[in-house]
Amino acid sequence: MYQHTRLTTNRLNFFQKFRNYDYILLFCILLLGFISLATMYSTDGGEILFHTKSHFTKLVVFTIMMLIMSFINIKYWFSIGYLSYLAVIGLLVATYLFGITSSGSQRWINLYFINLQPSELMKIVIILCLAKYFHRMKLENVNSIYTILTSLIIIMLPMGLVIVQPDLGTSLLIAISGIAVLWFAGINHKYFIYTMLGFVISLPFIIAFLKPYQKLRVLTFLNPDRDPLGAGYQIIQSKIAVGSGGIFGKGFLKGTQSYLEFLPEKHTDFIFTLFSEEFGFVGSALLLVIYVIIIYRIVAIGANCRSYFAKIFCYSFGAAIFVFITINMSMVLGLLPIVGSPLPIMSYGGSSMLATMIGFGIVMSARVHNQQLIA
Amino acid sequence: MINSSSDSVKKLNSINRRMFITGSLKFFIMMGIISRLFFLQVKENKKYLTLSDKNRIREWKLAPVRGEFHDYFGNVIAGNFEAYQLHIIPEQVDDFRYVIYRIKDLLELSDKEFKKVLKKKSQIKPWETLIVSDNLSWQKFSKINNHLYDLNGVKPVISISRNYPFKENFTHLIGYVSQANQNDIENTEVIKKNFVPGLKVGKVGLEKSFEKKLIGSNDIERYEVNAYGRRISQLEFQKGEKGKNLRLTIDTEVQKLANELLKDQAGSICVMDIYTGDVIAMHSSPSFDPNLFVFGISKDDWQLIRNDPMKPLVNKTLQGNYSPGSTIKPIVALSALENGIINTNFTVQCRGHKHPLELYGQSYHCWKKEGHGFMNLRNAMKQSCDIYFYEIARKLGVDKLSETAKKFGLGKEVFGDLFSIEKSGLVPNTQWKKNALGQGWLLGETIITGIGQGYIQTTPIQLCLMSAQIGNGGHKIYPRIVINDENKVAPMDKFSPLYTNSKNIKIVQDAMFASTNEVRGTSYKSRIDDLKYQFAGKTGTAQVKKITARDRELDLKTFEIPYEERDHALYVAYGPYKNPRYALSVIVEHGGSGSATAAPMATKLFKLVIDRHKMRQSINDKKYLEI
Q: What is the DSSP string of B321-388?
């Protein structure tokens, strides 16, 4: 009965949308944005330089974009699921053909006003696409060969396009986003277990096919002291920075490891290291709490959605964000080999932030239109 | 709707179940990351904090300031001076090419020197200091300072460096410093500890022996550096300690005189206080300017020193092994008296070259062609009659002679291990010959040992010690050079008698007096009648080659013989005779006869040393003196 009455009020006016807003999530995103700005300011050596300014601009533009997205009905996002996937695949192909090469890999494409990294967008778009794919599917059809093959192709295609860039890290993250959807869609858990076993068994063969620098990364991960000034340098310096932070950290703008340039990639992949050095265990734990709240809110929004599409998107997006965060942190804390993966929102980089904000936008839209049913 | 709704319920159940599994997984992974953070930041914090400091803090050591050498009167004989240097930090220079060519013009650098500088530049990082010149003259230094407006990034620097104000006067005694090489660093702990590039350490002489005391300790600067090693800020400056100053027993004026006397000749002069053992002067000639070595000697200068036939690199006072010649005669006489072989009335007839001493077909000549006639001990010593000493040596035997000679300091290092280069000389006996050469001792060898020829070898410092111990009445003394050397313990047997009957010493002293102060004494011409300066001595003329019958016939004057074949001239003495205080030894290599060449030097030395005696006594530094 209750549902029925709500159905009649399906069309919300502007103020009702505002009332439906998840302010906790919004606050956490803005807080995270503020923290990332402060950290970026620190990486610039305590001055407002290029990185800070650029990060600020992106943050403002993409936050506004996210707010606008949240007012657009979730039905619309459902409808562009396949289209957006194809568009990003097109961008990846274009990147392969005319992309910009930087430090050995061809990841970026020049769109005249922005240098875009389509592989980052794919991390989100693949969720959108697969969520739409499974939305109407009956549970008994989910485990059919046809479905599994189709979804695997949907995942493999962008992975392949990203691997040739070459960018193993991002392609793995795309795969994880996709697999998250498959998991929530209800694909038999046996497949996951078999795949996992198969992966472990074939690991030696995979290593044999790895490029020399990738092998080096694995070896370095297993023993960073192997080549402390070469391949192991990043991870050793990162651990020193985090470890020397202590309980309360060295203080804002006082992180010697980053300030004196011992830290590599401090704007992007290793931003958490810098944060951790300056704010210590307490600060890092607080940052983790913020991330946990964000993920919790995303999942909670999913749980309260009536449409299956919104639910599966929110759950998968929450899981993907969680994986991005943990992989990045495990990497800088020396728990995983170095794979290029940014920390959502915190890391410098427009494409990553754009992708994350699109995800937040759709989640917000799902929240605002949580009673919306999609046929 | 119903159909789809039952399906959607199933779907909802499935997704919620899986969300629950995912959520639990997330929880465990999050806990893992938190515990990792805890491990790194709380548990291992100390370790990483240390590593971080090691990363960012780097120490720079600066060369320590070396201790000085002072003479007895406190004059600096090896000190420090301010060296004017020119440094450039290449990255601070806008146009390095322009500046370096400008400097080349201003300093008038040769192409070779210029290339060296450019090579040095290519070996360092751009923010490291390039030392263009380490010892500029004041003129060039001020010239650079006048053009500084035009030389952006060039730094005129005043740094501390070694200086030997008396140049060649103290070279062999003090030695010199030069850049530490790999050997110095590996073998000397204190150098390793204080090493900085460009550190100068003692290479020979006292500079080397007392390295530990002289070197001091580094100033230490701690800087925060970035990942590329560039200094960001200074954190700490730790002042080092200057090395200890050493005060020597040497009197610079006497040392200078010694240098003057031996000018253009090869030889050595030592002067010693016969009671304290203080070495008043110790000089080896020819010498060279040690300042040449401080900034690295040039090839030409080095070749000049190395190839000098007079061997300036050898410290003849300590390293020169000479036959003592007739200067051994006081010891031979003393030994004979002590062993009761002779008394003062024992007489031998010297009949000149026509009737030499014949022994097993060998003949042994006196130096005097006409012979001395009947000689007793006093006369034989006075006129240095060889026949007399052949005879008493024969009666005495080499073993007893060597015993006395060793007692008086011959045949072993005078300064112990103070100088690594010091030679021990050689006092032969029958046992020694059997061990070293595997042959039995021949009587003829005893005979020539009696006039200080043959196997016997002594260093000038040993002869000086010998005459000092005769001069002080036959008491043991220990020579010293460094006054404030705490490591040296005062020996227990200082002043213990070296004789069995003090009368015998008196007899020898009297004979030496006669040799210098009575008519027909060998050094009569060099005597000083003034009682204040009157001294007693013994000449010596050491053959460097066997005198053949033909040589005897020719009887050439010294200047007619080729340099390398001329005799060494020796002289040992002590004075003033009435109240003795100083002893000396003079050796002039290939100088001809002792009486003509060496003894006159003693005259001048005694005059100066005795004149300065009062002044020396007036420095009553109780802290140092231990008489």
A: -B--GGGGHHHHHHHHHHTTS--TT--EEE--TTSPEEETTEEE--S-TT--EEE-HHHHHHHT-HHH
B45 located within any domain = no
Cα separation, B568 vs B573, whole angstroms: 17
Judging contacts by C-beta atoms under 8 Å, the chain A residues touching residue B225 are: 260
Give the pLDDT confidence score for residue A5 in this predicted structure.
45
Task: Please indicate, yes or no, whether residues B106 and B164 belong to a single structural domain of this protein.
Answer: yes
The series of mean pLDDT values per 10 residues for chain B, 627 residues long, is 66 89 94 94 92 84 88 90 84 82 86 85 79 83 83 78 90 90 86 82 90 89 81 83 91 94 93 93 92 86 90 92 93 93 90 84 86 91 92 92 93 88 92 90 91 93 95 92 79 85 92 92 91 93 82 78 88 92 94 90 94 84 47
In a domain, B303, yes or no: no
What number of C-beta contacts closer than 8 Å exist between A and B?
Answer: 123
- Is there a contact between A273 and A43 (Cβ–Cβ < 8 Å)? no
Section A341-370 average pLDDT: 93
* Residue B458: strand pairing partners: B322
Mean pLDDT of A308-326: 94
pLDDT confidence bin for A143, thresholds 50/70/90:
confident
For residue A314, the chain B residue with the least C-alpha distance is B19
Does residue B535 form part of some domain?
yes
Tell me if B536 sits within 8 A of B581, measured CB to CB. Answer: no
Do B214 and B334 lie in a common domain? no
**Cα B317 to Cα B584: distance, rounded to the nearest angstrom:** 12
Contact at CB, B23 and A299, closer than 8 angstroms: yes
Would you call B297 helix, strand, or coil by DSSP? coil
Give the H or E element holding residue B225: strand B219-225
> Within B440-557, where are the H helices?
443-449, 460-471, 502-517, 549-554
Identity at B309, one-letter amino acid code: P
A256 → closest Cβ in B30, B44, B52: B52
E strands in chain A: 100-102, 105-110, 115-116
Going by C-beta distance under 8 Å and a sequence separation of 6 or more, which residues neighbour residue B563? B590
**Could you tell me the residue range of the domain that residue B473 belongs to?**
252-287+313-618
Calpha distance A307→A77 (Å, rounded):
12
Shared-domain flag, residues B418 and B443: yes
- Contact across the interface for A262 and B55, Cβ inside 8 Å: yes
**Contact at CB, A262 and B56, closer than 8 angstroms:** yes
* Distance, CA of B377 to CA of B333 (rounded, Å): 8
Q: What does the alpha-carbon distance between residue B397 and residue B424 come to, in Å, rounded to a whole number?
A: 22
> With contacts defined as CB-CB under 8 Å, which chain A residues touch B12?
308, 311
Domain boundaries, chain A: 2-8+18-368
Residue A370, CA atoms < 13 Å, CB-side half-sphere: 21
Instruction: Tell me: pLDDT of A277 over 70.
Output: yes
Q: Which residues of A touch B (CB under 8 A)?
A: 138-139, 183-186, 237, 239-247, 256-257, 260-262, 276, 280-281, 284-285, 288, 292, 295, 299, 302-303, 308, 311-312, 315, 319, 322, 326, 329-330, 333, 335
**Contact (Cβ atoms closer than 8 angstroms) between residue B538 and residue B593:** no
How many domains does chain B contain in total? Answer: 2
The pLDDT of residue A1: 37
pLDDT of residue B181: 85
Residue B585 sits in a domain whose CATH number is 3.40.710.10
Chain B closest-CA separation from residue A307 CA (Å): 10
B229 and B372 share one domain = no
List, for residues A34-44, the tens digit of each pLDDT value.
999 999 999 98
CATH of the domain at B112: 3.90.1310.10
Which residue from B262, B254, B270 is spatially nearest to B287, judged by alpha carbons? B262
